[in-house]
Design brief:
single chain, 493 residues, mainly alpha, membrane, DUF3360
């Protein structure tokens, strides 16, 4: 019997996705059909993947596409607002730069790269943890284009050397679980407070609580019936309806239009675009620690996204898990290209796309193509951007689509006392400084057997126990010290 199963698996390995595909009607449930799609897919790495031959579009792909579009519009708006405040630029700069980033990332990196060329490379999105630092980056004398070039170079080095996947492999379940719990809890509290503060500021203090209460009930119901993948569109629509019904103010402001995509407009003059001109050597020196810090943050960020796939995909769906190193390649190239066109985004793996996609049991390519199309439509139309960045939609979408799932996934990963030790130290250290510090320190302790599973540490090589974790801790620590992120310690630069 064992030999028959092995033979069947060998035959399946030799067949293409199109040959192995079966219609949904042949399965007992929709979930079984989606599981089978994940198992039989055979994405072509850095070669052309085609709909029908290599993957299919399903109704579930709309969920991560919508979620990712909402998330990225919110994030890009926050990034460009921070840059504008730092350099004294006006509201027109913010709108035009958001549009540049949406168009460039949508076409080149959602549709072309992750959709058709490498469906194992997650979409290149926004680096959320770097947003609070943008004001500091601008004040330090750094230059957005210099920062992008350095970040891209460091990212390519990490991806070529397979450093990203190595760091992910060396992160134990307890460390990863603690990281997800911290990110999920802190992010949830942030969005809850933001919504309540917003409702008070606009004169409808009760709206925030009622929107949250209604969506708690809806989210719990969707989880109960196994339809949690519908949470983002369903909860966002409910947030809009409830908030408007209760008198929350809203108006359309962003008219249709196209941004200037000429690099010369953005970078060659001190009168147009960023009004900074091209960067000089001093700009590169000032940008260096921030670029190092951004790349140091990539591994824990990517880790969280891949874990979501592993928790929601069937065990045999190895071919559809995101490849960490290929994702880093995409992010590094996207950082340089996007900024060359004039954009100001700091990029990372696209979490507001990947997490809903994993919950919906969908692979990367089809949803990525749909997301790219949605981003292009919204960037040109203008008015939908106002809806996606309206506080009730923004906070609820991020809560149910990103932070609550992160929290749940983290708790699922902490399975025993040893894992809970590592998770607890990760949360503690993350609260003291930030999640990167918590991840790097606890990974070092965990891989040496000082906390967590001592037997696991004994099986690791000297490089895996000492050299790699210590290097990650030192590099991230020095970068944080340089820019003043260590509490009570003045910035070294």
């Amino acid at each position: 019997m064992m030999q028959e199963n092995t033979g069947a698996e060998v035959i399946a390995e030799e067949k293409s996705y199109a040959e192995l595909h079966r219609p949904a009607s042949e399965f007992n449930s929709r979930s079984d059909y989606l599981d089978n799609e994940l198992i039989i897919m055979k994405p072509r790495r850095w070669r052309l993947n085609l709909p029908g031959r290599d993957f299919r579009f399903e109704i579930e792909d709309l969920v991560p596409a919508i979620a990712g579009t909402i998330g990225i519009t919110v994030m890009y708006s926050a990034v460009m607002t921070s840059w504008a405040n730092g350099f004294g630029l006006d509201a027109n700069f913010i709108i035009e730069n958001v549009r540049v980033e949406m168009l460039v990332s949508a076409f080149f990196f959602c549709i072309i790269t992750s959709g058709f060329l490498n469906p194992r490379a997650n979409l290149a999105g926004n680096h959320g943890p770097m947003i609070p630092l943008i004001g500091m980056i601008a004040a330090s004398g750094a230059h957005p284009l210099a920062l992008a070039i350095l970040l891209g170079i460091f990212g390519l080095i990490l991806s070529i050397t397979k450093g990203g996947s190595r760091l992910v492999t060396l992160t134990g379940d307890g460390v990863a679980g603690g990281l997800l719990v911290f990110l999920g809890l802190s992010g949830s509290l942030s969005q809850i407070n933001s919504l309540i503060d917003w409702s008070s500021a606009v004169g409808v203090a009760h709206v925030g609580f009622i929107v949250l209460f209604v969506n708690i009930i809806l989210y719990a119901y969707l989880a109960r019936i196994g339809k949690r993948w519908l949470a983002i569109p369903a909860c966002s629509v409910v947030a809009v309806v409830v908030a408007l019904a209760l008198g929350a103010p809203f108006e359309f402001k962003t008219s249709p239009g196209l941004p200037n995509l000429n690099p010369a407009y953005w970078w060659l003059s001190t009168e147009t675009g960023w009004k900074l001109g091209l960067p000089n050597m001093q700009h590169f020196i000032a940008s260096l620690p921030f670029a190092l810090l951004a790349v140091a943050m990539w591994s824990p960020d990517f880790l969280g996204h891949r874990i979501f796939q592993e928790l929601n995909y069937p065990t045999k769906a190895k071919n559809t898990l995101m490849d960490v190193d290929d994702t880093m390649t995409g992010c590094a190239v996207r950082q340089i290209v996007g900024t060359a066109f004039g954009g100001g985004n700091v990029t990372s793996s696209w979490g507001t796309y990947m997490i809903p996609a994993a919950i919906a049991k969908r692979p990367i390519p089809a949803g990525g193509i749909l997301l790219g199309i949605l981003c292009i439509v919204i960037a040109i139309a203008g008015y939908p951007m106002d809806i996606t960045v309206w506080r009730p939609v923004m906070s609820i979408a991020l809560l149910v689509g990103v932070f609550l799932p992160l929290l749940e996934a983290g708790m699922q990963m902490v399975k025993n006392t040893k894992d809970s030790q590592s998770a607890g130290i990760t949360i503690f250290a993350s609260a003291v400084v930030n999640p990167v510090f918590g991840w790097a320190l606890t990974m070092l302790l965990d891989n040496n057997g000082l906390i967590g599973d001592a037997e696991r540490a004994k099986k690791l090589s000297f490089a895996d126990r000492i050299i790699i974790p210590l290097s990650a801790f030192i590099i991230s620590g020095v970068a944080m010290a340089a820019v003043g992120m260590l509490p009570g310690i003045p910035a070294l630069l």
